[in-house]
Amino acid sequence: MTTTVNLLVGGPMANWPDHLERIPGPWVGADRGALRLVKLGIKPVMVVGDFDSITASELATVKAALAGAVIVKPDQDHTDTQLALKSIFEQLDPDEVHIYGATGGRLDHLLANVWLVLDPFFRKWAPKVKLIDRQNTVEYFLPGDYQIHKEPDKKYLAFVPLMPMHLTLPDEKYQLQADHNDYPISWASNEFVGTSGRFSFDQGVLAVIQSRDEASARHE
Predict the structure, then answer these.
(1) pLDDT in tens, 192-203
(2) Whole-angstrom Cα distance, residue 151 to residue 158?
(3) Strand arrangement, sheet containing 176-181
(4) Do 107 and 17 meet the contact criterion of CB atoms below 8 Å apart?
(5) For the chain, first and last CA: distance in Å?
(6) Burial class, 199, CB count within 10 angstroms (exposed 0-12 / middle 13-18 / buried 19+)
(7) What is the pTM of this model?
(8) What is the pLDDT of residues 151-209, one digit of tens each?
(9) CA separation for the pair 19, 40 (Å, rounded)
(10) Cα 154 to Cα 15: distance, rounded to the nearest angstrom
């Protein structure tokens, strides 16, 4: 059975999937994400951060509802999300970590979250990490051959080489054959043909994004 830990970080609530509180736990909160979990009635099993975005009374509220450990960030060399992810894998050892609240708002935070798995320390965990918001699911892959399945509510499929690689897409709507890139690029607005698609690449880290339009997200 796959074990999944959910991590809520501090991005805008407007980018959350609907009914976040119904997603089964366990949950970890990073900085303001910890307070938001408590306000949703969720007891986090761990909270992480320097807590500079919440007041002392709000932190006391979080600690009163906490079902596990508080990990205070010791320095500014790591982001709250990095420290939370490190703590989750080292202490909880899940099969997957689903990160919410990582998109929207400040672009520097978005890029730090998207590029997190490029850090050699975190790269070994890249295949276990997903970023999820109202419109998108981002998965990461290390070199190899894969088959990915279409999420029922998603229309678009993007392949984003984050490092140099040769990428092959043999059966998507728009195909590639060992196409080489030596800089990050988004092969965007591709689509599944059927309910699954195969891909392969030889080196680096690949992000694969399933997306839907904003209008469909608003009217679900």
Answers:
(1) 999 999 999 999
(2) 13
(3) 144-149, 196-201, 165-169, 176-181
(4) no
(5) 30
(6) buried
(7) 0.92
(8) 999 999 999 999 999 999 999 999 999 999 999 999 999 999 999 999 999 999 999 99
(9) 10
(10) 16
